[in-house]
# Entry
Amino acid sequence: MHAHLVARIFENISVQAFKDHPERGFQGGCRFTRREDDILRHSRYWKASDTYTPSVAPEPLIEGEYCYAGAVTGHFGHYMAEMSHRILPTLLQTTPARWLYIAPNGARSITYQQLPRTAREVADYFLIRPQSIRIVSCDSVVQSLYVCEQGSDLGGGPKDGYVDDLGSYADERLRQIHRHDTAIPKVYVSRSGVLTGGTFLGERYLESILEQDGFFIFKPENYSLTRQMDVYSKADVVVFADGSACHGVELLGRNSVRRCYLLSRRAESVVAAFVNIFTQRTETFEVLNEFHSLGTFIHDEATGMPWEHLSVCLYHPDALAAFFKTHQISKLTGFNKTEYIASAARDLVRYFSYNVKHHRSMVNYRAAWRVIGKYLSYGSKL
# Structure
Protein backbone atom coordinates (compact mmCIF):
# COMPACT_ATOMS: atom_id res chain seq x y z
CA MET A 1 0.00 0.00 0.00
CA HIS A 2 1.37 3.42 -0.95
CA ALA A 3 0.13 6.94 -0.54
CA HIS A 4 -1.16 8.52 -3.72
CA LEU A 5 -0.80 12.20 -2.92
CA VAL A 6 -1.74 15.11 -5.16
CA ALA A 7 1.08 17.12 -6.74
CA ARG A 8 0.93 20.04 -9.18
CA ILE A 9 3.31 22.43 -10.90
CA PHE A 10 2.64 26.16 -10.54
CA GLU A 11 4.03 28.93 -12.70
CA ASN A 12 4.82 32.33 -11.19
CA ILE A 13 3.34 31.45 -7.83
CA SER A 14 3.57 33.85 -4.91
CA VAL A 15 5.18 32.52 -1.71
CA GLN A 16 5.13 34.33 1.58
CA ALA A 17 7.75 34.27 4.32
CA PHE A 18 6.67 32.25 7.34
CA LYS A 19 5.67 34.08 10.51
CA ASP A 20 7.47 31.89 13.03
CA HIS A 21 4.87 31.52 15.79
CA PRO A 22 3.41 28.02 15.18
CA GLU A 23 1.57 28.05 18.52
CA ARG A 24 -0.52 30.95 17.18
CA GLY A 25 -1.23 29.31 13.83
CA PHE A 26 0.46 29.03 10.44
CA GLN A 27 0.92 32.25 8.52
CA GLY A 28 2.76 32.23 5.19
CA GLY A 29 3.79 29.67 2.56
CA CYS A 30 2.43 29.22 -0.97
CA ARG A 31 -0.46 31.50 -1.87
CA PHE A 32 -2.98 29.37 -3.72
CA THR A 33 -5.94 31.10 -5.34
CA ARG A 34 -8.09 28.16 -6.56
CA ARG A 35 -10.34 26.04 -4.34
CA GLU A 36 -9.15 22.86 -6.08
CA ASP A 37 -5.66 23.57 -4.73
CA ASP A 38 -6.78 23.60 -1.10
CA ILE A 39 -5.45 20.04 -0.70
CA LEU A 40 -1.94 21.45 -1.26
CA ARG A 41 -2.23 24.15 1.40
CA HIS A 42 -0.64 23.83 4.81
CA SER A 43 -3.06 21.78 6.90
CA ARG A 44 -3.84 20.81 10.47
CA TYR A 45 -6.28 17.99 11.24
CA TRP A 46 -6.36 17.50 7.46
CA LYS A 47 -7.96 20.89 6.88
CA ALA A 48 -6.35 23.95 5.28
CA SER A 49 -5.10 26.12 8.13
CA ASP A 50 -2.74 28.66 6.57
CA THR A 51 -3.31 32.41 6.35
CA TYR A 52 -1.57 35.19 4.45
CA THR A 53 -0.99 38.89 4.84
CA PRO A 54 -1.03 41.49 2.05
CA SER A 55 2.40 42.11 0.53
CA VAL A 56 3.76 45.56 1.33
CA ALA A 57 6.58 45.60 -1.24
CA PRO A 58 7.23 44.34 -4.79
CA GLU A 59 7.90 40.62 -4.78
CA PRO A 60 11.24 39.60 -6.34
CA LEU A 61 11.23 36.80 -8.93
CA ILE A 62 13.01 33.54 -8.17
CA GLU A 63 13.93 32.14 -11.56
CA GLY A 64 14.08 28.42 -12.31
CA GLU A 65 12.31 25.22 -11.29
CA TYR A 66 11.96 24.13 -7.66
CA CYS A 67 10.22 21.54 -5.50
CA TYR A 68 8.50 22.83 -2.38
CA ALA A 69 9.94 21.45 0.87
CA GLY A 70 7.72 23.55 3.14
CA ALA A 71 8.28 26.11 5.87
CA VAL A 72 10.85 25.85 8.64
CA THR A 73 10.71 26.61 12.35
CA GLY A 74 13.09 26.11 15.24
CA HIS A 75 10.39 24.27 17.21
CA PHE A 76 11.22 20.55 16.93
CA GLY A 77 7.69 19.24 17.44
CA HIS A 78 6.01 21.61 15.01
CA TYR A 79 8.63 21.12 12.31
CA MET A 80 8.42 17.33 12.51
CA ALA A 81 4.63 17.18 12.78
CA GLU A 82 3.63 19.62 10.09
CA MET A 83 6.58 20.83 8.03
CA SER A 84 8.59 17.71 7.18
CA HIS A 85 5.98 15.67 5.32
CA ARG A 86 6.16 16.97 1.75
CA ILE A 87 9.71 15.76 1.08
CA LEU A 88 9.31 11.99 0.74
CA PRO A 89 6.06 12.21 -1.29
CA THR A 90 7.87 14.59 -3.64
CA LEU A 91 10.86 12.26 -3.98
CA LEU A 92 8.53 9.38 -4.85
CA GLN A 93 6.93 11.33 -7.69
CA THR A 94 9.75 13.33 -9.25
CA THR A 95 13.52 13.88 -9.19
CA PRO A 96 14.10 17.32 -7.70
CA ALA A 97 17.14 19.27 -8.82
CA ARG A 98 16.41 22.15 -6.46
CA TRP A 99 14.33 22.60 -3.32
CA LEU A 100 12.57 25.67 -1.97
CA TYR A 101 12.23 26.25 1.78
CA ILE A 102 10.19 29.05 3.34
CA ALA A 103 12.03 30.61 6.28
CA PRO A 104 10.71 33.08 8.86
CA ASN A 105 10.42 36.58 7.46
CA GLY A 106 13.57 38.63 7.84
CA ALA A 107 16.73 39.20 5.86
CA ARG A 108 16.64 38.60 2.13
CA SER A 109 19.56 36.19 2.37
CA ILE A 110 19.79 33.17 4.67
CA THR A 111 22.27 30.33 4.37
CA TYR A 112 21.80 26.60 4.79
CA GLN A 113 23.76 26.68 8.05
CA GLN A 114 21.29 29.23 9.40
CA LEU A 115 18.38 26.83 9.00
CA PRO A 116 17.14 25.33 12.27
CA ARG A 117 19.00 22.16 13.22
CA THR A 118 15.98 19.88 12.74
CA ALA A 119 15.35 21.15 9.20
CA ARG A 120 19.00 20.43 8.32
CA GLU A 121 18.82 16.96 9.87
CA VAL A 122 15.67 16.08 7.93
CA ALA A 123 17.25 17.34 4.71
CA ASP A 124 20.31 15.18 5.34
CA TYR A 125 18.11 12.18 6.18
CA PHE A 126 16.47 12.49 2.77
CA LEU A 127 19.87 13.06 1.09
CA ILE A 128 19.05 16.60 0.04
CA ARG A 129 22.30 18.36 -0.83
CA PRO A 130 22.76 21.77 0.83
CA GLN A 131 23.73 23.33 -2.51
CA SER A 132 20.36 22.30 -3.98
CA ILE A 133 18.42 24.31 -1.38
CA ARG A 134 17.05 27.82 -1.92
CA ILE A 135 15.72 29.52 1.19
CA VAL A 136 13.12 32.27 0.90
CA SER A 137 12.82 34.69 3.80
CA CYS A 138 10.83 37.44 2.12
CA ASP A 139 7.68 37.46 -0.01
CA SER A 140 8.64 36.30 -3.52
CA VAL A 141 7.36 34.92 -6.81
CA VAL A 142 8.69 31.55 -7.96
CA GLN A 143 8.92 30.95 -11.70
CA SER A 144 8.10 27.22 -11.43
CA LEU A 145 7.22 25.34 -8.25
CA TYR A 146 6.31 21.65 -7.85
CA VAL A 147 4.06 21.28 -4.79
CA CYS A 148 2.98 17.96 -3.26
CA GLU A 149 0.40 17.63 -0.51
CA GLN A 150 1.55 16.76 3.01
CA GLY A 151 1.74 13.06 3.83
CA SER A 152 0.82 13.86 7.42
CA ASP A 153 -0.08 16.89 9.49
CA LEU A 154 -0.47 18.16 13.04
CA GLY A 155 -3.54 16.57 14.59
CA GLY A 156 -4.71 14.49 11.63
CA GLY A 157 -1.68 12.24 11.50
CA PRO A 158 -0.52 10.25 8.46
CA LYS A 159 -2.66 9.78 5.37
CA ASP A 160 -3.38 6.31 3.99
CA GLY A 161 -0.24 4.54 2.84
CA TYR A 162 2.18 7.25 3.94
CA VAL A 163 3.66 5.31 6.88
CA ASP A 164 4.36 2.42 4.50
CA ASP A 165 6.30 4.77 2.25
CA LEU A 166 8.17 6.06 5.29
CA GLY A 167 8.97 2.53 6.44
CA SER A 168 10.38 1.48 3.07
CA TYR A 169 12.74 4.43 3.17
CA ALA A 170 13.60 4.33 6.88
CA ASP A 171 14.55 0.64 6.99
CA GLU A 172 17.49 1.13 4.63
CA ARG A 173 18.44 4.69 5.57
CA LEU A 174 18.69 4.04 9.31
CA ARG A 175 20.73 0.92 8.62
CA GLN A 176 23.18 3.01 6.62
CA ILE A 177 23.60 5.55 9.39
CA HIS A 178 23.33 3.51 12.59
CA ARG A 179 24.13 -0.11 11.73
CA HIS A 180 26.96 -0.13 14.31
CA ASP A 181 24.93 1.43 17.14
CA THR A 182 23.70 -1.04 19.72
CA ALA A 183 20.09 -1.36 20.82
CA ILE A 184 18.88 -0.04 24.17
CA PRO A 185 16.19 -2.49 25.37
CA LYS A 186 14.30 -0.23 27.81
CA VAL A 187 14.02 3.49 27.12
CA TYR A 188 12.37 6.30 29.06
CA VAL A 189 12.15 9.49 26.96
CA SER A 190 12.55 12.29 29.47
CA ARG A 191 11.47 15.93 29.66
CA SER A 192 13.17 16.56 32.99
CA GLY A 193 15.84 18.66 31.28
CA VAL A 194 13.21 21.02 29.87
CA LEU A 195 12.95 23.67 32.59
CA THR A 196 10.53 26.00 30.80
CA GLY A 197 7.56 23.80 31.69
CA GLY A 198 5.35 21.42 29.79
CA THR A 199 6.28 18.68 32.23
CA PHE A 200 4.89 16.60 35.03
CA LEU A 201 6.33 17.31 38.45
CA GLY A 202 8.27 14.52 40.13
CA GLU A 203 9.60 13.16 36.86
CA ARG A 204 13.17 13.00 38.19
CA TYR A 205 12.02 10.71 40.98
CA LEU A 206 10.27 8.37 38.55
CA GLU A 207 13.45 8.29 36.47
CA SER A 208 15.53 7.24 39.47
CA ILE A 209 13.20 4.27 40.07
CA LEU A 210 13.21 3.28 36.40
CA GLU A 211 17.01 3.44 36.23
CA GLN A 212 17.17 0.83 38.99
CA ASP A 213 14.99 -1.37 36.77
CA GLY A 214 17.37 -1.11 33.83
CA PHE A 215 15.79 1.76 31.92
CA PHE A 216 17.99 4.19 30.03
CA ILE A 217 16.91 7.79 30.66
CA PHE A 218 17.00 9.19 27.15
CA LYS A 219 17.08 12.97 26.72
CA PRO A 220 16.43 13.43 23.00
CA GLU A 221 17.65 17.03 22.89
CA ASN A 222 21.17 15.60 23.29
CA TYR A 223 20.95 13.34 20.23
CA SER A 224 20.56 13.66 16.48
CA LEU A 225 17.17 13.06 14.92
CA THR A 226 18.27 9.81 13.28
CA ARG A 227 19.74 8.51 16.54
CA GLN A 228 16.39 9.20 18.22
CA MET A 229 14.64 7.24 15.47
CA ASP A 230 17.20 4.44 15.73
CA VAL A 231 16.84 4.16 19.52
CA TYR A 232 13.04 3.99 19.36
CA SER A 233 12.97 1.41 16.58
CA LYS A 234 15.52 -0.90 18.24
CA ALA A 235 14.07 -0.83 21.77
CA ASP A 236 11.84 -3.49 23.31
CA VAL A 237 9.87 -0.86 25.24
CA VAL A 238 9.74 2.94 25.01
CA VAL A 239 7.96 5.23 27.48
CA PHE A 240 7.43 8.84 26.40
CA ALA A 241 6.74 11.77 28.67
CA ASP A 242 4.18 13.86 26.76
CA GLY A 243 5.94 16.53 24.71
CA SER A 244 7.68 17.43 21.48
CA ALA A 245 9.98 14.41 21.67
CA CYS A 246 7.01 12.25 20.65
CA HIS A 247 7.37 13.74 17.19
CA GLY A 248 10.71 11.97 16.86
CA VAL A 249 8.74 9.00 15.45
CA GLU A 250 7.17 11.06 12.63
CA LEU A 251 9.48 9.66 9.92
CA LEU A 252 9.30 6.03 11.07
CA GLY A 253 7.22 3.41 9.30
CA ARG A 254 4.46 1.02 10.28
CA ASN A 255 5.03 -0.94 13.53
CA SER A 256 8.57 0.43 13.82
CA VAL A 257 8.30 0.68 17.62
CA ARG A 258 7.45 -2.50 19.50
CA ARG A 259 5.89 -1.54 22.86
CA CYS A 260 5.22 2.16 23.35
CA TYR A 261 3.59 4.05 26.21
CA LEU A 262 2.72 7.71 26.69
CA LEU A 263 2.43 9.57 30.00
CA SER A 264 0.00 12.30 29.01
CA ARG A 265 -0.33 15.68 30.73
CA ARG A 266 -2.89 17.40 28.50
CA ALA A 267 -6.55 17.24 27.55
CA GLU A 268 -7.82 14.23 25.65
CA SER A 269 -8.37 16.36 22.55
CA VAL A 270 -4.60 17.07 22.47
CA VAL A 271 -3.70 13.48 23.32
CA ALA A 272 -5.77 12.33 20.34
CA ALA A 273 -3.22 14.00 18.06
CA PHE A 274 -0.46 11.93 19.65
CA VAL A 275 -2.55 8.79 19.30
CA ASN A 276 -2.74 9.49 15.56
CA ILE A 277 1.05 9.72 15.44
CA PHE A 278 1.74 6.53 17.36
CA THR A 279 -1.03 4.12 16.44
CA GLN A 280 0.27 3.08 13.02
CA ARG A 281 3.93 3.24 14.02
CA THR A 282 3.75 0.94 17.06
CA GLU A 283 2.87 -2.68 17.69
CA THR A 284 1.51 -1.91 21.18
CA PHE A 285 0.49 1.55 22.37
CA GLU A 286 -1.21 2.71 25.57
CA VAL A 287 -1.75 6.09 27.24
CA LEU A 288 -1.85 7.06 30.92
CA ASN A 289 -4.19 10.03 31.23
CA GLU A 290 -4.56 10.25 35.03
CA PHE A 291 -3.12 13.64 35.96
CA HIS A 292 -4.07 16.86 37.71
CA SER A 293 -3.09 20.04 35.86
CA LEU A 294 -1.68 22.89 37.94
CA GLY A 295 -1.67 25.32 35.02
CA THR A 296 1.09 27.75 34.14
CA PHE A 297 2.25 31.23 35.02
CA ILE A 298 3.87 31.82 31.60
CA HIS A 299 1.83 34.08 29.32
CA ASP A 300 2.12 35.12 25.69
CA GLU A 301 3.43 38.68 25.60
CA ALA A 302 1.44 39.54 22.46
CA THR A 303 -1.96 38.18 23.51
CA GLY A 304 -1.74 37.88 27.29
CA MET A 305 -3.05 34.32 27.03
CA PRO A 306 -1.49 31.59 29.18
CA TRP A 307 0.84 29.22 27.34
CA GLU A 308 -0.89 26.00 28.29
CA HIS A 309 1.78 23.93 26.54
CA LEU A 310 4.15 25.13 29.31
CA SER A 311 1.85 24.07 32.15
CA VAL A 312 2.87 21.57 34.82
CA CYS A 313 0.92 18.73 36.38
CA LEU A 314 0.94 16.06 39.09
CA TYR A 315 0.20 12.40 38.59
CA HIS A 316 -1.77 10.45 41.13
CA PRO A 317 0.97 8.15 42.47
CA ASP A 318 -1.30 5.10 42.68
CA ALA A 319 -2.47 5.53 39.07
CA LEU A 320 1.10 6.03 37.89
CA ALA A 321 2.35 2.89 39.63
CA ALA A 322 -0.65 0.85 38.49
CA PHE A 323 -0.09 1.84 34.84
CA PHE A 324 3.50 0.61 34.87
CA LYS A 325 2.61 -2.62 36.62
CA THR A 326 -0.56 -3.43 34.65
CA HIS A 327 1.24 -3.11 31.31
CA GLN A 328 4.30 -4.93 32.65
CA ILE A 329 6.55 -1.97 31.92
CA SER A 330 8.15 -1.95 35.36
CA LYS A 331 7.28 -3.03 38.88
CA LEU A 332 8.55 0.36 40.13
CA THR A 333 10.16 -1.37 43.07
CA GLY A 334 10.72 1.10 45.89
CA PHE A 335 8.32 3.72 44.53
CA ASN A 336 7.15 5.87 47.45
CA LYS A 337 4.31 8.42 47.46
CA THR A 338 5.92 10.76 49.93
CA GLU A 339 9.20 10.87 48.02
CA TYR A 340 7.33 11.48 44.77
CA ILE A 341 5.47 14.49 46.22
CA ALA A 342 8.68 15.88 47.72
CA SER A 343 10.42 15.54 44.35
CA ALA A 344 7.47 17.30 42.72
CA ALA A 345 7.92 20.24 45.09
CA ARG A 346 11.58 20.55 44.09
CA ASP A 347 10.60 20.48 40.41
CA LEU A 348 8.04 23.22 41.02
CA VAL A 349 10.75 25.43 42.55
CA ARG A 350 12.98 24.80 39.51
CA TYR A 351 10.09 25.71 37.22
CA PHE A 352 9.56 29.05 38.93
CA SER A 353 13.25 29.87 39.32
CA TYR A 354 14.13 29.15 35.69
CA ASN A 355 11.28 31.15 34.18
CA VAL A 356 11.63 34.12 36.51
CA LYS A 357 15.31 34.27 35.57
CA HIS A 358 15.00 33.67 31.82
CA HIS A 359 11.46 34.73 30.85
CA ARG A 360 10.63 37.46 33.35
CA SER A 361 8.58 39.47 30.85
CA MET A 362 6.26 36.47 30.32
CA VAL A 363 5.67 35.79 34.02
CA ASN A 364 2.25 36.43 35.52
CA TYR A 365 2.84 36.46 39.28
CA ARG A 366 -0.84 36.26 40.18
CA ALA A 367 -1.05 33.06 38.12
CA ALA A 368 2.05 31.80 39.92
CA TRP A 369 0.23 31.89 43.23
CA ARG A 370 -2.64 29.93 41.67
CA VAL A 371 -0.22 27.23 40.53
CA ILE A 372 1.27 27.01 44.03
CA GLY A 373 -2.19 26.86 45.57
CA LYS A 374 -3.22 24.00 43.30
CA TYR A 375 -0.06 22.10 44.17
CA LEU A 376 -0.66 22.49 47.91
CA SER A 377 -4.34 21.59 47.60
CA TYR A 378 -3.92 18.55 45.39
CA GLY A 379 -0.61 17.37 46.81
CA SER A 380 -1.98 17.28 50.35
CA LYS A 381 -4.69 14.82 49.27
CA LEU A 382 -2.36 12.26 47.69
Q: What stands out?
A: The first strand starts at residue 7 and ends at 19. The CA atoms of residues 152 and 231 lie 22 Å apart. The chain has a mean pLDDT of 92.
